[in-house]
Amino acid sequence: MRVWCSLALGLGLLLPAACGDSTSVDLPPLEIRLQQVFGSAAGLSSPIDLQAPPGDSRLFIAERPGRIRVVQGGVLQTTPFLDISSRVTVQGEAGLLSFAFDPQYSTNGFVYVHFVENTSTFGDIVVERYQVSSTNPNVLQTPGTGVIRISHPDANNHYGGRVAFGPDGMLYLSAGDGGGGNNQFMHAQDAGSHLGKLMRIDVSALPYTIPADNPVWPNNVGQNENWAIGLRNPFRYAFDSGQLYIADVGQDQREEIDVVSASAPGLNYGWSVMEGLRCFPNGGQCSMTGLTLPVYDYDHGGGRCAIIGGYVYRGAAIPELQGQYLFSDLCTGFVRSLSLQNNVATVSEAPNVNVGTPLSFGQDGFGEVYVLTADKRVLRIAR
Hints:
Oligomer: single chain
Strand content: 35-45%
Largest sheet: 5 strands, antiparallel
């Protein structure tokens, strides 16, 4: 196994599998640079998500071991926004993976936190709701209230994912296929399982309810929390202007980006019938009937190994970047953008720009986009 494969495995985002190779394709240039917000010595531990309420000048940075930190006035605060590190497992790909501010955060103070809890061999995928303190806007009250718990009993990889609110006000959660390799536990195409899925629930009151317009799945499964099936390890997804962008990590051949209407229910993204735009395994024969194909995929040539999905840029600092979806790769650290016209993807790559080993993207309260890295840096996409 090549050195870059071993590095990726150690960082816990790539399936233990052989790594592919092919010829790189020259891409048009993306004119951006990276501006360092925090360096490796700033004191962050495995930064894995960055969010903020709309219009809020603070940054909130999740650390994979189980904390959310606050940056105010450019200063990383000592007291965490939330610390649940005693409950979080970080084995394999687990950890505190993401969080989301309620669309009504300014009035209700709710934050939804997505993590893997150390309650079983490989942990459970958990989402809990917390409320901001009435006396300190930089601290969440504990304990939180449970929202949803998903068993992940088979392996310590492919947890997904992200928790986020859609344009419809519903809470979405993506989960990986349960881990291992080759969809060996057969969760991704099983509409009765929550693994390998994008889920959608109504959290306007707890306990949550299943929205009436969630799809009804065939084979006697009926309606449940699942909004879409056939995902391998969606890392990550994002909403923009009524569309849904999903970056789904492939096995050992293809990485993919799916772009669909955010209001389209019941889609099947194909894993493990397909990996990217190829039939799985080995690009053989398969039926694509009923599958939603990616708008873009790329191979593992040049050391590429696992897509890291970002956001559609909606900030003010780079007007010419408006409407372009930003993403990277765990092993090569490129920064690319994708734009769609008539469902045809145009992809550009920033020359001489490399983030090292990206763990995640983030977005602040003004639409500016950030990259969080394995060496504990926070970088802003800049003009």
